[in-house]
Amino acid sequence: QVDQILSEFRLREEDLKKVMYRMQKEMDRGLKLETHEEASVKMLPTYVRSTPEGSEVGDFLSLDLGGTNFRVMLVKVGEGEEGQWKVKTKHQMYSIPEDAMTGTAEMLFDYISECISDFLDKHQMKHKKLPLGFTFSFPVRHEDIDKGILLNWTKGFKASGAEGNNVVGLLRDAIKRRGDFEMDVVAMVNDTVATMISCYYEDHRCEVGMIVGTGCNACYMEEMHNVELVEGDEGRMCVNTEWGAFGASGELDEFLLEYDRVVDETSLNPGQQLYEKIIGGKYMGEIVRLVLLKLVDENLLFNGEASEKLKTRGTFETRFVSQIE
């Protein structure tokens, strides 16, 4: 009986191919100007037109915001003994308080600015105006490499006053309000793009970046003539697929299990980011909790008795799944 309940999670090859073909169709629709708006997979241009060429040396500051933790990193890029790139990093993680995630944009970016200030103090770097790269792992419509409009929050973020605004502008304003350090924000990219570019240092054939973490997303290098949202046909551009939103037009309905539907209905954004909700780490613990409750209801676990904690949404964390495994 347990196997029967768990077997629902195993997709047959023909089902996987069905999902693949539907996603391919949505990706094509996302790239085309006339169908972009209604496509569930937005295929957002990043304005990253090339991979690293080897001239990038010096000290850089990197910010990474994409989940419940925020990371500040000092990156030193130099040339090694055999002409190879040599990259040294120092970083610190800061957890984001719930009130910053769900309060106002000003509160969130003031907190980010506070973390940067703390990091610079610890590394005696306050006197330096460093070039700063911002990895921002939410759906953004880029207008340039250092200008992007937040389309919508995902992964439990709800800070008001950010959607529809330039994210780099919000960061610059927060740094200015704080006033105890200066930064030159030179680029904002998605975490998938940052992954692809950093992997390129190891292997020059790398042209795809994929994240399976709190959420799930991918990017890749596309021929410019296929990127209809940006003028020009020459060269290539990295495209951020934002495939976590796949399923918004019903493409995944036949594959969603009862647990997936409960997770979606009780989320901050019902009906959105469905592909991400069946894959991303943010939701895995809750799916397992719902399966455990089903096993209890069927009298297959804990003698049919569920604890109050198991009955409470959000109590079974994804890290427990890893620990058990």
TrEMBL record:
GO terms for biological process: glucose metabolic process; glycolytic process; intracellular glucose homeostasis; regulation of insulin secretion. Pfam families: Hexokinase_1, Hexokinase_2. Gene3D superfamilies: 3.30.420.40, 3.40.367.20. Its main location: cytoplasm. This is Phosphotransferase. Belongs to the hexokinase family. It catalyses: D-glucose + ATP = D-glucose 6-phosphate + ADP + H(+); D-fructose + ATP = D-fructose 6-phosphate + ADP + H(+); a D-hexose + ATP = a D-hexose 6-phosphate + ADP + H(+). One of its GO terms (molecular function) is fructokinase activity. It is found in: Cytoplasm; Mitochondrion. Residues 208-325 form the Hexokinase C-terminal domain. The keyword Mitochondrion applies. InterPro entries: ATPase_NBD, Hexokinase, Hexokinase_BS, Hexokinase_C, Hexokinase_N. One of its GO terms (cellular component) is cytosol. Its EC number is 2.7.1.-. Pathway: Carbohydrate degradation; glycolysis; D-glyceraldehyde 3-phosphate and glycerone phosphate from D-glucose: step 1/4; Carbohydrate metabolism; hexose metabolism. Residues 1-201 form the Hexokinase N-terminal domain. Keywords: Allosteric enzyme, ATP-binding, Cytoplasm, Glycolysis, Kinase, Mitochondrion, Nucleotide-binding, Transferase.
